[in-house]
Amino acid sequence: MFIHNISSMKILIKNGVIVTSTDQYKADILVQDGKIARIENSLPDNLADKIINVEGKLVLPGGIDPHVHMYLPTPAGPTSDDFESGSKAALYGGTTTLLDFVTPSKGQSLTDALKQRINEAKNSLVDYSFHVSPVEWRSTTEQEIKDCINAGITSFKVYMAYKGTVGLNDDDFYKVLQVVGKEGCTVTVHCELGDEVDELRNRFVAENHVEPLYHCLSRPAELEAKAVKQAIELAAKANCTLYIVHVSSKESLQYIKDAQSKGQRVFAETCPHYLLLDDSKYQGDFNQTAPFTISPPLRKKVDNDALWNALNEGVIKTVGTDHCPFNLSQKAAGISDFRKIPNGAGGVEHRLELLYTYGVLEKRITLNQMVDVFSTQPAKIFGLYPLKGDIKVGSDADIVIWDPESEQTISVKAQHQHCDNNMYEGFKTKGKSEFVICRGEIPIKNGNLITPETKGTFLKR
Ligand code: URP
Ligand code: ZN
Ligand code: ZN
């Protein structure tokens, strides 16, 4: 692992309750040289340059968001958060590592696109890595994948949707699975049958159904579930580890469960919006409904419940945000044709408060499960564990001091994400990051960002 910018400050975190994916106990933590140096019942004050008394607070491993799109180029302009603003919002939400994407232009090599993306991320305040997307299959793609692996990449991304731009056909998807599987790495996949979705989209527009509601209706759960089934079959044949991103529907879960019960290495991710929001959000005028034009679209309440159960049962292993925000002026590119609305919405700031409030406090998941899906599993699945994802001696000192009593309401006004809309507007939440520590630096103190000079680094996995 390649690390620089390590803080020499010695910090003593006293009297907190440490919560990991498996434990909950009271102890002190000494942070030294950016690492967790000691965890003991009672550590003496004279060990540290700085003491933080966190009585009554929870001490959690920093979050790893396995799915974000900062500064993603689209015909309507880039996502409204770049790496600097998006990583600041992430920090407020207790996330200290981001996994974004490398999406080459047609004809560009994967390695060249990776270099370009690492440069775009250089202003990130938190550590980062990427899933690399082969968006076409060329004679050089196999070698490019291997070169990316040598450069520290262990996961690749295939889109079964978005045919014509970044989507791959099944033959090329299979080739990627074969190469990546042989290397012992992971393919992450966006599951929606692209050709069928495109046919529905074109039919709706031809019938003059152009509103955001038809974005939702053109991407039915059945087309996600069929894609999930197909991806699982192809991955089994290619003997490749598969990670299905943003699972949104109950129908998809059965295929995932079946594969897992046969011992296939299939991981699944969902997002807070698929747990908490539903398709009633597509009723209203353009500015009310366009913020929810995301793919897959929001589903039904029955899907929300099935996803919570799947999280609780461990069928879904991670919660990522798919942070991909656009301002309303950008969404307006599709005011008379929903196909032109840039897909995506923000959320990197809200993952922990939503999981805590609507998961833990409503007893849908335990505190340990919350830590698991928020930090430990993303670290384990994507080759960052035990450096990240745990409160453990020797791990990076990426730590969130969580105030479980704080109460707030999510709003565009209060958010730190750069965006003029927020899918969770009006949601009441409990819990807030009081301190966030990144490799021994303390960018968030008493709930405020105070060290904008904190810099993240590219994590070679
Ligand atoms: O609507 C979404 N999710 N936009 C971001 C790209 C993707 O499909 O993940
Ligand atoms: Zn996607
Ligand atoms: Zn995404």
How would you explain this protein's 3D organization?
Helix 7 packs parallel to helix 8. This protein has 14 helices and 17 strands. Helix content is 31%, strand content 21%. Helix 1 links the parallel strand 6 and strand 7 (95-102). The termini are close together. The chain has 461 residues and is of the alpha/beta class. The chain has helices at 83-92, 110-120, 141-150, 170-182, 194-206, 212-217, 221-238, 250-261, 272-276, 286-289, 301-313, 328-331, 351-360, 367-381, and strands spanning 11-19, 24-32, 35-40, 50-53, 58-61, 63-65, 95-102, 127-132, 155-159, 186-190, 241-244, 266-270, 318-319, 399-409, 428-438, 441-445, 448-449. The longest helix has 18 residues, at 221-238. The strands form three sheets. Strands 1, 2, 3, 4, 5, 14, 15, 16 and 17 form a nine-stranded mixed β-sheet that branches. The structure holds N-(aminocarbonyl)-beta-alanine (URP) and zinc ion (2 copies). One zinc ion (ZN) binds next to loops.
